Amino acid sequence: MNKSEFREVINAPKEKTWEVLFTQYGDIHVHNPGMISSNYMHNATNGELNCERHCQFNDKLSLDEKITEIDENNSFTVVVTEHNLPFIKEMSATYELSSIGSMTSKEVTEVKMTSFVSFSPGFMKYLMRGQLGKGLVQHLFGLKYFIETGKAVDSHNYSKIFKSYK
Asked: Has this prediction a pTM greater than 0.85?
């Protein structure tokens, strides 16, 4: 499995970040500009151990993922259980949240996402790594923007927001 790490600093308390990232697990599409929709599966209504979600990237590409490990308010791991993404064999990710103090009397949280991906054929990692990494960076930036402003990010507004939001 190929390992990549991505980080984003969010001007919000750790608890609020956990609420959006974990508790609202099935609604990832509101802060991930690479997804057109997402929903809980199997009658779930919030994030919890073994909770599953379906993520739709476009009319053809989608994946299902499941929460397999939790350290309450600190970290959780998701594993892709089904997908139709080309050249990808297996995928998982661990999200870790850390309080890193305050800026201008506001609490600040760092989100670290560690992604694990294997490819078939194996050489595709050299061609796909950049594209996957870009999508994960957009996801974490969208998470930051959504938590800090309460406004959704999608493929139509992402570029404008990314260029203007600091």
From this structure: yes
| Nearest Cα residue to 132 out of 26, 22, 30, 1 | 1
Q: Let me know if residue 166 belongs to a domain.
A: no
What token pair was written down for 13? 């308390």
Tokens of 95: 């999200």
As for how many domains the chain has, the answer is: 1
CATH code of the domain covering residue 124:
3.30.530.20
Ordered per-residue pLDDT tens for the chain, 166 residues: 889 999 999 999 999 999 999 999 999 999 999 999 999 999 999 999 999 999 999 999 999 999 999 999 999 999 999 999 999 999 999 999 999 876 566 889 999 999 999 999 888 887 787 788 888 999 999 999 999 999 999 999 999 999 999 6
